[in-house]
Amino acid sequence: MAESMKGLKRTHRCTEVSTANIGETVTLMGWVQKNRNKGGIIFLDLRDRSGIVQVIFEEGSIDAAVFEKAGRLRSEFVVAVVGKVEARSGAVNEKMATGEIEIRAKQLRVLSEAETPPFPVEEESKTKEELRLKYRYLDLRRPDLQRNLMMRSRVAMLTRRFLEEEGFLEIETPVLGKSTPEGARDYLVPSRVHPGSFYGLPQSPQLYKQLLMCSGYDRYFQIAKCFRDEDLRADRQPEFTQIDMELSFVDVDDVIDVNERMLAYLFKEVLGVEVPLPIQRMTWQEAMDRFGSDKPDIRFGMELTDVSETVKGCEFAVFKNALEAGGSVRGINAPGQGGMPRKKIDKLVDYAKDYGAKGLAYIALQEDGSVKSSFAKFMKEEEMSGLIAALNGKPGDLLLFAADKNRVVWDVLGALRLELARQMELLDKEEYRFVWITEFPLLEWSEEQNRFTAMHHPFTMPMEEDLPMIKTNPGAVRAKAYDIVLNGTELGGGSVRIFQNDVQEMMFEALGFTREEAYERFGFLLDAFKYGVPPHAGLAYGLDRMVMLMAKEDSIRDVIAFPKVKDASCLMTQAPGEVDEIQLKELGLKIDKTVGQTEQ
User: Fold this and answer.
1) Where are the beta strands (DSSP E) in 279-341?
2) CA within 13 Å, CB half, 211
3) Among candidates 481, 493, 498, which has minimal Cα distance to 534?
4) Could you tell me the end-to-end alpha-carbon distance of the chain, in angstroms, rounded to an integer?
5) Model confidence over 484-532: pLDDT tens digits?
């Protein structure tokens, strides 16, 4: 039966007790990690968020009833212990923060009993994620997850401290706003007061933060919840958190400067890692050409090489057709992988097909100098040696080639170099390599919508020197946009915003919006711009992603207290759930059970 803690006050967390407290009487409270009865002496591991301390109950030195009660303790019982701090009588445990001491118990109260948990609460849990997420409140007791969430709390607190020092104001923006369908799919909230009307949950506070600049707040930030109804991946959630900021009277370099210093501050304070400043910058075009990705992982080489000139005029149809269609032929060199078995190469070919490749051409350079290749018979000898030289191929190397439209070639080889780096174990989580990607294309062509869409959003400022091309060659216009990338993950991104009416109208025209459509979607922002708007720019980080990389985790679910799974549901609370007819009636809604069902 549970007892009260009345009359007891916790004096320390478990690992706050050290050799400095030897001889003192302390009161600790926490969960039973494990309980071992060695006959006449009971060893109890007591756990709280700070860690574990060993408590001993020795027969004869304490009340018999207390000793008997200690023998009945099971894992996850919540207890209060009063005892004396002593130097550990057995061997010192180097792995424990409290390994030099133990608590000799005098009193014990069982504050709460526990059923046997469905899985052990321990670090590096081998339990399936589905089960852990169903009982997330137990999973969150694991020391590794608790460390992650403490790190997240610290990152948020230090961010606030740094930005306040830099003159930023923390201002909250609404969660119930207007749906502006340009970008990912909105989550909609029906209005009871306005039947048939809906709020849109914010995909980001973008329009509000620009309005705050119009209102003269100069430097704004917010640790903001954002919502996107899109298909999920390991590093995506339907709701996520941004460190969001906007600054007035600034250009690209000003935004980059304050953010570099913030990143250096966070990584030094949280991890003790020095981030050398300034952080390397690379244009979007260079990143695509060298790494096949606008979020390049620069911890290793294996860069792309354009061999279109080398194979020009060759008879190999795959290369020939790609070049004739205006595409390119590019390759990467996987050093030391020339002896890769055929089966493994075939797997790489399948992997490349997932990224849009029709196939993958390869040259395997054997250690003895011989060459195995999937396409040598279509090539002249000098063309083959030209390809090998272009990729600096040496005996023992594996050369891989993709030929298609540029976008496909980049996607395929960009993904392939990462897959090979994983196989070759080149990805060191202890290494933090930052890079800014700048000068993104302003627009990208959407085959589905048969029009240009904004690569970032419709308020991104084009580079001044490219403005004349917005009517003649919109696809070539570069944006004043920038992303900060860490180890192949986009940590954050932002841009200088359009603040002149004529430029904004040109942008809407390029996106295929009429003036009326633009006003219907963004009218309140465009109206605000009529009353004096400062030049402004901003940036937003994915807080979840940043903490994931700092904590060396592979999924953002491991740094979010209560995450959703792949189908955007919560296994613990069973959300989303059905609601009763009365609630639906109040909202003027009816459920169509056929929506979302696939035909059998």
Assistant:
1) 281-283, 305-306, 328-334
2) 15
3) 498
4) 55
5) 999 999 999 999 999 988 888 888 888 888 888 888 888 888 888 889 9
